[in-house]
Amino acid sequence: MPYRILGHTADIRLSVEGKDLEELFRDALKGMVFIAGPRESDDLKETNRKIKLSAADRTALLVDFLNEVLFGMEKNFEFYRDIEFEKLSPTGMRAILKARPAVRFERDIKAVTYHEADIVENENGVLATTIIFDI
Amino acid sequence: MERSALRRINDWLWEIPKTYRSDMRVPARVYATEEMLDEIIGDRSLDQLVNVAGLPGIVDYAIAMPDIHEGYGFPVGGVAAFDLKEGIISPGGIGYDINCGVRLLRSNIDVSAIRSVIPELGRALYREIPSGVGQAGRLKLTDTELDEVLRRGAGRMTEIGYGDPADLKNCEEQGCLAGADPRMVSVRAKDRGRDQLGTIGAGNHFVEVETIEEIFDKDAADKFGLFPGQVVILIHTGSRGLGHQVATDYIREMMRAMPRHGIFLKDRELACVPFDSDEGRNYFQAMAGAANFAWGNRELISWEVRRAWRGILGDGAGELELLYDVAHNIAKIEEYAVSGANKKLVIHRKGATRSFPGQPVLVPGSMGTRSYLLMGESAAMKESFGSSCHGAGRRMSRTEARRKIRGGELKQKLSAEGVSINAGSISGLAEEAPEAYKDVDQVVDVISRSGIAAKIARMKPVAVIKG
Q1: How confident is the model at residue B27 (pLDDT cuts 50, 70, 90)?
Q2: Band (B72; pLDDT cuts 50, 70, 90)
Q3: Please, are residues A101 and B255 in contact by the beta-carbon 8 Å criterion?
Q4: Angle between helices B240-257 and A58-76 (to 10 degrees)
Q5: Range of the domain at A104
Q6: Which of B99, B159, B220, B440: disulfide with B365, CB 3.0–4.6 Å?
């Protein structure tokens, strides 16, 4: 399982792992889309959404990336099936999100928070972090 | 946190001394009974409160209300006051949903007169008030129109015909927090909020039709125009995507600015800057704009509620008057006695309600349980920076609630108990089940015994509208 939902009294705590930064970011995206719970439209048309970000470090970049995803989901009423990275470093990324229209979302994610977010290499030698979503 | 870290002050107040952790600048205080404390210790909320107690310029105590639970950065149910010169302002101490709050509309009729049409009224409210994720409202504002709402809040809605001017005198700050500057709100935040006025969203937000089940103080109830059996309507929502984005934008900006101000924190979600700094002033002006958007939102929802009310009950049912509207996620500049002298402070309330003496304090429970109307008392000014609890407070995680509770069964059970449910998401309904919340009676008892606010009336729901 690329991600796990852990307990949190009011919000949602996501645990995510990846063998490298690209896998970690992709799995975090999948976890977030799972939490939002989109119902797919019959229209399977896929749209490419370009994304370009910079941040102070890899943890801030991941949170900023997920907040960018949240803005896109809310503004365009779509969800992201996958992502293609053109460039990904600890302080910057350029990528294309594969967007599909949604009919509705199960949950209203208010924001992706920095609380507890800290990308570290765990005992299994993979990158891991926790992300808390404000619901 | 171990139970032994807390020192008992009295039956409803506990203190974590400053010596508990070396970075604490003030002690932390928790309003709770011993029984409630056992549950509070079960999550990380008190550790989060201790983190708050270490922030620069904090005055007297970091305070937790009895509905405290784990949040992100600051705990939910937290109050903290900071010196205007030496202290900070932190978006995490207010929350992403800036000016999430509650308002109570009062009818003049007894529930027995409309009992047969309550399910129909619930459906009409559900149709009239957009709810759920991404549901647009009836207005799509231009930049200029949106800026006017950010500047003037509920008052602007009444000017353009979507509210009642008489409501304003019964809103905290008359529905408009001074100092808002729409230029400090990003284009992205405005884009998120542009079509969301008059919508409740999802999660724990709701509109409920309730009846007054019990009056505790007849004189105060008379003053507020309340009587047993009366139909009232409770609205709970905030600044929607606009407020969420303001918080996101400024947390990011403050993280970059903190080293310049010599502030280094373990938890980035506590990101803060001196209140008396360019970044601090900019955030306060943007936050005030988002707070005003929330007051505009609740005013437009009230207009929608009144439309549904008239549509189902006709003119014979009378008007719905605003009893009060309070914020429970906000920062305000207020004056308190500190070390014998009056001093202006920036009060952070995250999941806490203003509770000035004589002021109505609204405490929603959960659907299927009771909600309360309290009235602020003098101890709040001496002990809790004029603040009270904001609700029952969650006790069960959303994933556990989904695992244990079936939304469809819950809807049937509540219906059998006389609560008509209209919800966009049945699984989302399970997350908001009464079992997921603390016992609101216990929470309110602590507030009442502490002298922060007195019990005036208890309400029970008869129709619930959720996204």
Answers
A1: very high
A2: confident
A3: no
A4: 160
A5: 13-134
A6: B440
CA atoms within 13 A on the CB side of B447: 36
Catalytic residue among B69, B328, B348, B390: B390
Give B134 to chain A, closest Cα distance, Å: 6
Portion 412-431 of B in contact with A at CB < 8 A: 424-425, 427-428
Residue B425 lies in a domain: no
- Are B267 and A115 within 8 A, CB to CB? yes
Q: Residue B251 belongs to what domain range?
A: 3-395+437-466
User: CB–CB of B25/B53 below 8 Å?
Assistant: yes
Answer yes or no: B236 catalytic.
Answer: no
CB within 8 Å of B386: residues ≥ 6 apart: B334, B336, B347, B354, B355, B356, B376, B380
Q: Is residue B420 part of a domain?
A: no
Identify whether A2 is part of a domain.
no
Task: Say which CATH number the domain at B7 has.
Answer: 3.90.1860.10
- The rounded mean pLDDT for chain B is 96
pTM over 0.80? The answer is yes
pLDDT band, residue B16 (cuts 50/70/90)? very high
> Using 50, 70 and 90 to split pLDDT, how confident is the model at A42?
confident
Residue A8: inside a domain: no
CA atoms within 13 A on the CB side of A69: 31
Q: How many domains does chain A have?
A: 1
Residues of A in contact with B271 (CB under 8 A): 114
Each residue's pLDDT tens digit, B401-452: 988 999 999 999 999 999 999 998 888 889 899 999 989 999 999 999 999 9
Residue B403 domain flag: no
CATH code of the domain covering residue A102: 3.55.10.10
Collapse the DSSP code of A100 into the 3-class scheme (helix H, G, I; strand E, B; otherwise coil) and give the result: strand
In this complex, do A104 and B395 lie within 8 Å of one another by their Cβ atoms? no
pLDDT category at A1 given cuts 50, 70, 90 is low
- The one-letter amino acid code at B377 reads E
**Residue-wise pLDDT tens digits, A94-110:** 999 999 999 989 889 99
Total of domains in chain B? 1
Q: Which two tokens stand for residue B243?
A: 């407020």
pLDDT in the model for residue A96:
98
Residues of A in contact with B132 (CB under 8 A): 104-105, 108
| B136 in any annotated domain | yes
Q: Give the pLDDT confidence of B345-394 residue by residue, as tens digits.
A: 999 999 999 999 999 999 999 887 899 999 999 999 999 999 999 999 88
